[in-house]
Specification:
495 residues, five-stranded mixed β-sheet, 20 helices, 46% helix
């Protein structure tokens, strides 16, 4: 019964918009996170249908149940795997099973549908139809992609080679391919279950959405480097970073939630990660100038967000525009503070920022504000072959979506510290645009030391190479004419 009471508690908070579903599930510290997560997601999806059935049968009056608990129980009874509880609760619900089943059947008849999914609103049915592939990241700390492929082939799966286009990710049962963008990711048909598989239990594979694998992959932190995972739990990105670093260097992982860190510690242990140092600490309170982080050159920042890109976490209830706008503004403010704080670490070279949000306010607007406040950093263009880019003016960034990339909704931006030459570029551009400006000191020194050089070389930034060449040739012809004229004068004198 613990599953249902916890699911009801989380469902109630989600529907009252008191927290993000994913966060609430991980904070619950429930023994079977996957089971709890799936139950709440599916119940929320059918929430309005379940409520209509419960009201029409007067279930609350007969059982004295609260609506959230009634919803999760009725969902599992009518649409799930069957009730998993025993005792008085199960006996109570089973007394009303016939009436509940009849109410569901009558609803289908009235709406002229045969499947439960067809009862859902069109926008919800669309997301159900767009079922995502099962992505599996091979944990190279414990095995190799080749050995994993061989093991799966011996286990009855059919390997179709490496995908070359998104359509190749449409697979039949027991088929799989290597992903076309990420070399350590294997792709299986939707809902392929690996939770009881040896490779998963042994930590050889990590169940992680492809979009969620992008941040660590694109950060490219080399072995022996010092890296910060600023908002680390539940830990999939942390284990991915450790694998790419070959378990060397130092990986500092922070999270404010102690329960999430405990879950993360178990995951990292199973994955064989040893280079990490966990800290139950608010990243915003970490001192960038501490000696402990004096060699940190890479940061991955995946802060709390609206979760609007997660397919099963999307809010199905009618939105309150004012409340939603206020929440997004608060999240964006927090995300910008985290981003600015990360760039304060004195030796940081690269910081990757990601969210599982589809909102411009949490993505492009945060990055734009950050760049304006940190002119010594620039955006790095990412994966030119990736089909979805950041919204206009930020095409260097990546976006992901169900329809565009066959993943959950996601956003990734990579910020890199500019070197001194790049910092001078704006000044040089000003000189090019305004030729009336005097030459820089370096150009003046060159001209004084080389008075016979073509005039155009006084400041090469003022003319293109072709213009310099043409002007140089003109000067040469002029000198030749002078020399020829001088020679003629000498001849006249000799005569």
């Amino acid at each position: 019964m613990a599953l249902y009471t916890k699911a009801a508690e989380i469902l109630d908070k989600v529907e009252k918009q008191l927290g993000a579903l994913k966060t609430l599930v991980y904070e619950s510290k429930f023994a079977n996170i996957k089971q709890l997560f799936a139950l709440v997601c599916e119940t929320q999806k059918f929430s309005s249908i379940l409520e209509e059935i419960i009201v029409s049968t007067k279930l609350l009056k007969h059982t004295k149940l609260k609506m959230p608990l009634a919803k999760v129980l009725v969902f599992d009874l009518l649409m799930g795997q069957g009730l998993k509880c025993g005792g008085s609760w199960k006996a109570l619900i089973m007394k009303h099973r016939s009436r509940l089943q009849a109410a569901l059947a009558l609803m289908k008849v009235k709406r002229k549908v045969s499947k439960n999914e067809d009862l859902l609103a069109s926008n919800v049915r669309q997301s159900v139809g767009d079922q995502l592939p099962r992505y599996v990241r091979v944990n190279v700390l414990k095995t190799t992609v080749e050995d994993t492929v061989d093991y799966l082939k011996r286990d009855g799966f059919t390997y179709k080679g490496e995908a070359i286009k998104l359509d190749d990710l449409t697979l039949k049962a027991r088929e799989f391919v290597k992903d076309l963008h990420l070399p350590e990711v294997l792709v299986f048909p939707p809902k392929t279950d690996f939770h009881d598989h040896f490779l998963y239990k042994a930590g050889h594979i990590i169940l992680q959405d492809k979009a969620s694998c992008l941040p660590a992959f694109l950060l490219k932190a080399p072995p022996e480097s010092h890296v910060i995972d600023a908002c680390a739990a539940p830990g999939n990105k942390t284990s991915h970073l450790a694998a790419l670093m070959k378990n060397t260097g130092k990986l500092f992982a922070f999270d404010l939630d102690a329960k999430r860190l405990a879950t993360m510690s178990t995951l990292l242990l199973r994955a064989g990660v040893t280079c990490h140092q966990l800290a139950n600490q608010d990243f915003l309170k970490v001192d960038p100038n501490s000696k402990l982080y004096s060699n940190v050159e890479y940061i991955i920042l995946d802060p709390s967000c609206s979760g609007s890109g997660m397919v099963c976490l999307q809010d199905r209830s009618p939105a309150d525009p004012e409340k939603d706008a206020s929440r997004l503004a608060s999240l964006a403010s927090f995300q910008l503070r985290c981003l600015n704080h990360g760039l304060r670490f004195p030796r940081v070279k690269r910081l990757i920022y990601s969210t599982c949000s589809i909102h411009r306010q949490e993505n492009e607007e945060v990055v734009t504000a950050c760049l304006q406040q940190n002119p010594n950093f620039r955006l790095v263009p990412l994966l030119p072959e990736w089909p979805e880019r950041g919204l206009p003016t930020l095409a260097q960034c990546l976006r992901a979506s169900v329809n565009g990339t066959r993943t959950h909704g996601f956003f990734v931006a990579l910020l890199e510290r500019c070197n001194e030459t790049e910092n001078l570029m704006p000044q040089l551009m000003v000189q090019i645009r305004h030729p009336e400006m005097t030459c820089p000191p370096a150009c003046e020194e060159f001209h004084e030391a080389n008075p016979n050089e073509p005039e155009a070389l006084e400041c090469e930034d003022k003319a293109t190479p072709a213009e310099v060449s043409a002007m140089g040739e003109k000067k040469t012809r002029k000198r030749r004419r002078k020399k020829k004229k001088s020679a003629g004068v000498i001849m006249d004198l000799n005569d």
